């Protein structure tokens, strides 16, 4: 798309307000943390100290709304500590303009690189810059700077204490993640009734796995309901697909297909019931007709062959899911050094080497994170210099806007830029109107600031424009506590917010990091991960006695992660005003379809893996050897825009079929696998003929 279309779409997305589930009790608790801090400092300190400490409580509370699986008190304390340190260092350099700009450059560069650790780390790092820019404008001495920093930390301590004292839905985010995964599988089972080859979005399963990663302290307190159903959910998905598949499961029509549809409907009901029980912390309730549909009739099953095996395994797995989720809600799982059944999450100290490796990995000129860090550093320094040079006052608002708006990708930066200005405009003028009409005093301004921050916490997930409006009103009322009138705030903030947003968007236009030119690399990564998953599964068929389920599992996770990276990259590329000269949109869709089919076929083969006592399969071993030999060149060919060659695996497959026929699950799965690889070769072949053939096959 062109620049005009891209800007129109990003502006529309930035101005969109979404409907989402609200958490009023959590919002009230966060607002109470800010109210406690402001009230204590107004009663026993000064308005300036109240304003300073309020920023710490506000930012610490805001961090607890981020999508992180770590305990909320730890997030509040971590943010408060980093805010206090950055504020104190900023105060020490604030007296010298050049020294402060140098400090701002170093700090912003580090904050930009923090996105290598994840979005939560990037958000927290941005908060440290924003709070430092604001608080250093409040006059004080070196001793006062330490006092300001301590009060900011105190704000975080108050938020952490409130979370501990008033827990609201403990483990609620983990419960929602697991329930969402089970509900997604229930929806998948229903879609399989009508479309036997329906696609499944693995994102809910990935979220549930991330939520299941625990520190040893968390593992000692985790409810039993969150311990077992996730593993069962992971095993149910391939069984559902293999049962519905017309090639490796039941026939497309007939009594067996009707019975499969009944089983899939019953499975969906059970999965929904388990998801509801986990989300609400209550026992599983199943209708009698669902239980009857999952019972094996005394006269024998209607299904035969692989479909019967899949049905029996599905019934057993559903029973395991119900049993695992019917445990007492308050009971906890004891954890000893000998029992490490949970997924380990690094402790705070254990994150240091992880963070260092992530930073080293992204410290290169081609990295989107590194380019973002350089961009945001240049913009923040330029914005600070320009803001202080203009006769408006509050010059820090321009760099603060740039830092809060800028993200490593084009769409988010431009969406947030538009939303920031529009939301700030609304919030400032609403707050200014209230101030002009009622002339509130110090304590009324404090109450209005708390109300504004409560609205922010409540409506945080509805859109950045709403959050910006609440923040704009909060700043007006908060500075009103310190004695600054609304007329001193509104016009300057609007002008400097516009300046900061324009600088951010201009910087991305001048030195962009486009995702579109890297789509072939993303596609090649997905092919390589899918190939590793297929090889791990084929090796089990070749040598069942050497079966290593962990290796298959890790290969599946790698393939799932590569698919999600591709989908996220493709979604970002669609919003960019550039084109990929070596990959058309039709080729992109066809290649994505082929690789999704490849992963699905491999998953179906995994659902029918032989036992360790089964005989080795030399043909499967020869096929795996041919696939392993062809895969590296194919991955390189995708990157280099060359034709893909799968003649080696195809030739071995033909010999295998001549020896075994089309009855074995392994050979039928290998046949479908090679078909998917051929579809990928046609989709990415040079010239329109290959793309047209791929489109017709789809």
TrEMBL record:
Protein family: Belongs to the YccS/YhfK family.
Domain Integral membrane bound transporter: 384-506
This protein's name: Uncharacterized protein
Domain of life of the organism encoding this protein: Bacteria
Assigned keywords, A-Z: Cell membrane, Membrane, Transmembrane, Transmembrane helix
PANTHER family: INNER MEMBRANE PROTEIN YCCS, P-HYDROXYBENZOIC ACID EFFLUX PUMP SUBUNIT-RELATED
Organism for this UniProt entry: Streptomyces cinnamoneus
A cellular component term, taken from the record's GO annotations: plasma membrane
InterPro entries: Memb_transporter_dom (IPR049453), YccS_N (IPR032692)
Transmembrane regions listed in the UniProt entry: 74-93, 99-117, 148-168, 373-397, 464-482, 494-511
Broad class of the protein's primary localization: membrane
Protein's membrane topology: Multi-pass membrane protein
